[in-house]
Amino acid sequence: MENQKIIEMFAVEGTPKHIRAYGSGHINRTYLVEMQQGTDVQNYIFQQINTDIFKNVDGLMDNIMGVTAHLKRKIQQRGGDPSRETLQIIPTLEGGSYYRDGDNCYRMYPFISNTYSYDSVQNPQDFYESALAFGNFQSLLADYPAETLHETIPDFHNTRKRFADFRAAVDADACDRVRFAQPEIAFIMERGQDTPVLAGLLQKKELPLRVTHNDTKLNNVLIDVKTGKGICIIDLDTVMPGLSLYDFGDAIRFGANSASEDEIDLSKVSLDLELYEQYAKGYLKGCNGNLSPKEIELLPMGAKLMTLECGIRFLTDYLCGDTYFRIHRERHNLDRCRTQLALVADMERKWRQMHEIILRAMY
Ligand code: ADP
Ligand code: GN1
Ligand code: MG
C-alpha cells in the first residue's frame, strides 16, 4: 500500500498534502507529513518501523506507550506541557498503536514544531542542554517498572557479545571483505579485553540496571527554538533496561566528536574536551544526584566502550554485507567504523583529562 493510503488509516484530521523523507536515521524510515484541512495545515511524523531489526513490534510499541504515558503524567505533575515535552502516539482508526500492512509496520506522532534537532553540535550550550534533557529523561523514568519493558533488541549494548559476533564475522568472512579491513580488525582485537568490563560489573551488580534510552544521539533530542532548552527526547525504540553509562557514552561518541560519524579525513576526528565537559555537567545535573560513585567514576569508560562498540558494530555490518545500517555510499560502514576507532584512539590519548573533567563536573 502506498504511504498516502496508510496515513489515512490513522486518526488524524485532513488529507495528506505533502509527504517527504525526513531526518538522518540509519534504521527506520521517517517522513514529515503535512495534513491539510481547509486552510489549516498540521505536520506529523510518519515512520516505517524496521521490522528486520525490530522483530516484536507489539512489544516495542507497548514500551513506547507505557513510557510516554508515564512521562506525560510526570510532566503534568510538574506543570509542563506534555504535548511538547514527550512524544504522543496517534492511534489508528481501529485504536491500535501502529498500522500493519503485511510485514510492514507504521506509526505516527504529532510533529513538535518550533524545535530543532542537530546532526552535529553547533555550540556547546546546545550540547549541555541535550545532556540535561537526557539526564532528566533518566530521572523521570527512575520509578518506571523496568521489568515490564520488552527487550526490543536483546543484548543491544552487551559489548562482550558484540565483540564475539564481530569475531565470528571475521572468521566467516562471508563477503570476502576482511582483506580491506586488516588494521581495523587488529585495532579491535587489541582492545578485546576492554569489551566485557561493563557487562561484567552489571552481572556482579556493581552497577545498577536502569531504564535507559540507549540511542542518545544528539539528533534524538528536540531543542526549543525560543528557549534553547532540550524539551523532548525522541526515538524511543530502544528504551530498555540498561546502564546510565550507555546513555552517557553514546552521546559523547556522537556529539563530542569534532567530526561527523562518517568523516573520511581522520585527521579531523578527535574528542572535543570542552564538549565532553559540557555534556558531563549537564548529564550529572539532569540525573539529579541519582548516579552512584561507581557510575560516575566509569563515565569515561562508558564513552570509550560505546565508541568502540559502535565501531565494532559498523565493521561487523560491513563484513556481513551491510544488512543492518542503511548506507549511502560504498564502504560507508567501513568509513563509519574508522571514524569510531580514531575517536577511541584519541580518547585513550586524553584518558587522564577525561577523568579530571568528570571530577570537575561533579561540583
Ligand atoms: P530514526 O530512528 O530514523 O533516527 P527519529 O525518530 O529519530 O528516527 O526521527 C528522525 C528525525 O525526525 C529526528 O532526528 C527529528 O529531527 C525528527 N523528528 C522525529 N520525531 C519528531 C517529532 N515528533 N517532532 C518533530 N521532529 C521529529
Ligand atoms: C542507529 O536509528 P539511529 O540512526 O538513531 C542505531 C544506534 C547507533 C546509530 C549509529 C536501533 O541509530 O544504535 O548507535 O545508528 N540504532 C539501532 O549512528 O541499532
Ligand atoms: Mg533518531
What does this structure look like?
- This protein has 363 residues and is an alpha+beta fold.
- Helices cover 44% and strands 14% of the residues.
- It has 13 helices and ten strands.
- The strands form three sheets. A five-stranded antiparallel β-sheet has the order 1-2-3-5-4. Strands 6-8-9 form a three-stranded antiparallel β-sheet.
- Helix 9 runs parallel beside helix 13.
- The radius of gyration is 20 Å and the shape is globular.
- 42% of the residues are buried.
- The mean pLDDT is 97.
- 2-acetamido-2-deoxy-1-O-phosphono-alpha-D-glucopyranose (GN1) binds next to loops.
Helix and strand arrangement:
Blueprint: H1 3-7, E1 15-21, E2 29-37, E3 40-49, H2 57-77, H3 82-85, E4 99-101, E5 104-110, E6 115-116, H4 124-140, H5 159-172, H6 182-190, H7 197-203, E7 210-212, E8 221-224, E9 230-233, E10 240-242, H8 244-255, H9 273-287, H10 293-297, H11 299-319, H12 332-349, H13 351-361
Antiparallel strand pairs: 1-2, 2-3, 3-5, 4-5, 6-8, 7-10, 8-9
Helix pairs in contact: 4-8, 4-9, 5-11, 8-9, 8-11, 9-13, 11-12
The structure holds adenosine-5'-diphosphate, 2-acetamido-2-deoxy-1-O-phosphono-alpha-D-glucopyranose (GN1) and magnesium ion (MG).
